[in-house]
Write a structure and sequence with these properties.
This protein starts with a helix and ends in a 10-residue tail after the last strand. The protein is built from three helices and eight strands. With about 190 residues, it is an alpha+beta fold.
């Protein structure tokens, strides 16, 4: 459950609204975490190729996470510039890492402090983001977004020092189709 919530929030937060410059090439996509198509509300992603080797991605995480993100001091819409490397666009941005870190810190706070026996101090360090990269592959019929994340945290033990655990270590793959005119589909 914790990992699923993190995935939805991280993915939604990773893309949002682009600037007004160069909107002529902007395409809106409705994206899902691979395997959840039709089961959850999609994330709205705007993709804009700005030139030969530059693009901009904006991700709207939706209203479901807006209050929580605001509590963390984050926007529900995130925008990043991406550079073309071979056949895919890549985002390596300190603001993406900061976003992932703030979301992950809030998510691990519970497991770090729950069910502590008397005398065991809670772990005060949050999550550690080792890597946060977006890989974007646009085609006329589909957009593939890969969030490549490595996030760890210290988990308290009944005896002994805290143990390093992985919150996310791998790729979160999102697939999207161009948005049709009209309302967003509702989850089933």
């Amino acid at each position: 459950m914790l990992q699923r919530n993190l995935l939805h929030v991280l993915i939604g937060a990773i893309w949002v609204c682009g600037s007004n410059a160069g909107r002529a090439n902007e395409v809106a996509y409705l994206t899902y975490l691979q395997g959840t198509e039709g089961k959850v509300a999609p994330f709205r992603v705007l993709w804009n190729e700005l030139g030969e080797s530059l693009g901009r991605i904006s991700v709207d995480l939706g209203t479901a996470y807006e209050a929580w993100l605001r509590k963390l001091g984050l926007s529900r819409v995130l925008t990043y510039d991406a550079r073309l490397q071979q056949r895919e666009y890549v985002v390596r941005d300190p603001q993406l890492t900061r976003f992932v870190n703030l979301v992950a810190n809030d998510l691990v706070r519970g497991p770090q402090q729950v069910n502590l026996p008397p005398g065991v101090a809670p772990v005060t360090t949050g999550a550690q983001v080792e890597a946060a990269t977006l890989l974007i592959t646009p085609t006329p019929t589909q957009l593939e977004l890969i969030a490549r994340l490595n996030v760890t945290y210290l988990a308290p033990q009944l005896s002994g020092p805290p143990v390093l655990k992985e919150l996310v270590n791998g790729d979160l793959v999102f697939i999207g189709q161009p948005e049709r005119k009209g309302a967003m589909p509702k989850p089933r």
